[in-house]
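Appendix B, record 7
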Amino acid sequence: MKDNEMKKIRNLLFIGASGAGKTTLAEQIFYLTKTTNRLGRIEEGNTIMDFDPEEIAKKMSLGLSIGYVKYLDHKINILDTPGCPDFVGDAIVAIPAVENAIIVANATGGYEVGLELALEQIEERKMGKVFVVNRMDNDNADYDKTLEAIAENTDIKPVKIYLPIGKEGAFEGVVDIIKRKAIKAGKESEVPTNLVEAMEEARIHLMEAVAETDEDLLNEYLENMELPEDKLIEGLKKGILSGEISPAFLCSAGTGEGVLALLNGIINYLPSPAEANEIEVLKGNEKTTFICQPDGELLGYIFKLYADPGMGDFVYFRLFSGTLKTGMEFYIPEKDAKDKAGTMYFMLGKNRNDCNEIKAGDIGALLKLKNAKVMNSIVSLGSKISVIPVELPTPTTWQTIKAVNQADEDKIGTVLQRVIAEDPTIRYELNVETHENVLSGMGEQQLQLVLKKLKNRYKVDAILKEPRIPYKETIMASAESNYKHKKQSGGRGQYAEVYFRIKPTERGEGFKFINSIVGGVIPSNYIPAIEKGLWETMEKGIIAGYPVVDISVEVYYGSYHEVDSSEIAFKIASSMALKDAFKKAKPILLEPIHELIIIVPSEYMGDVMGDISTRRGKILGMEQHSKKQYLTAQMPLAEMYSYYPALKSFTQGRGRFIQKFSHYEKVPDDITQKVISAWQEQTNE
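Structure tokens (predicted):
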């Protein structure tokens, strides 16, 4: 086989709930195709895909890993993603890298939270949505009930391609309803007589589903009440690629039964990169259609970074078009920078197979790139095209991070950037108002994993705690004040006097300084010092240690001394006069308000709406999308820090939200007094 033959490649993204068996399925595929000579088991910590020490310790996937097999003259690339919702970013970023999402569903698990979340990521996408109902050998395994639960809760309607032979402990193979063959242990045989009727019924349903996606096929089906096998398969592939048909397969990854049959189905019925060669890209800022070809213009996409402590940073990438060879320079439009391909690899977990080139349709890895990061494009020098960026979910969890040892404080920023580069849903920034380093992401497990990686890889101990709220101070009334700064202690003294009028400005207008001095009562060269004194005081805060905003300060009178006046004297007088006036002008605190879109199943709406009210939130509206309610609300950031765990609790894990900053609002008086008292206690210590 030539790996560059796009039609002989299948790219698969394994997604689904934690515990559905994605990694176990990958291990069976490696073993049954003789890619490995032993079957890796999660409980033994020896799987190909879960190789990170933290994954082995927790016995669960915590990051995306890739592998591949050669089977029946085809290459099948497998991207295995975590099922835990905290790590959903890996799946979201990898979706553009494949033609087919393989949704692994637990035959005994019902409509699980992780399954629901996985389907939400792909429901609207034009790509293959392929269901594999796993654990068919388990007690109470039910293929039909699992597919019905998916159809009831989404707009996706799975269409059976395979039927089970036997059930639970007696599950022994599958029936391919297209080829009308039974497959046991990878070998074809005649369909058991007790399943012929069910097979023919399922075949009619499949032909109807395929015919509905194409007018010519529909006419032929209506005329003959049958579709030839070649046209059925061709129509099925097109329907899968467009997202109109979602095929359903089944297996037991634990026993291996049905796994080779699944691989046969993947090769026979799922679209290849050659059939999915028309994609949308950006050309400048405009979307345009791009045709991927082996000899076409270079186009690739980086979907994962893995920081190997010994080797350095690996980036995993999909090449859509052209050929990338060792030594080639390429352009990264998102960074407006060049990079150079060194040694390339085909990855099998942490194991590497060197290669000199990656060709169109394939997936590989590059090591130690200088500029390229996750979600970057790989294009030819001078090219104007790039991959359309994916939309990442907004954070739902925030924590400040600080090194335990002062000696590590200087380097924590650098090593932290390396750790979080592996997961683009983690954000790290300095809050300039609270002077805290804030780590945010999709959940507590995700942020705790950051701490473990810092310690294990870089020997940096760090702690997390809830961030301070970035309140702001302002006023509700006007006031006047004056202050004379006079100090004499031998030698040159200090003298400055200022008169201020302060008043509130419109919310969001900021600070306005008005110089109304006339007649030279304060020389013009001291005016900048007065303004600087105001700025410095406002930055530090007056009543609770938070920045002052939305005020106007007018200096309208004052006095000076020809010898004793100085810039520092006017800065001090300015600061003291502002503090005095501010306290007279009905000072208040402002708090950040965020707008949320809360996505929940309808049955939980009552509890969710009641909880929003207890959190000082406001409900702005709601609308239904598919089977979910989308509730728009506003909530103070102070209440949002603890909101995600509560929402999960109310909704059995099925609720989620996206959020963005909206505006600042007055803090209720009782909370204001608590914040002021806490600050005064702290400053008096």
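Remarks on this record: The radius of gyration is 32 Å. The chain is about 30% helix and 35% strand.
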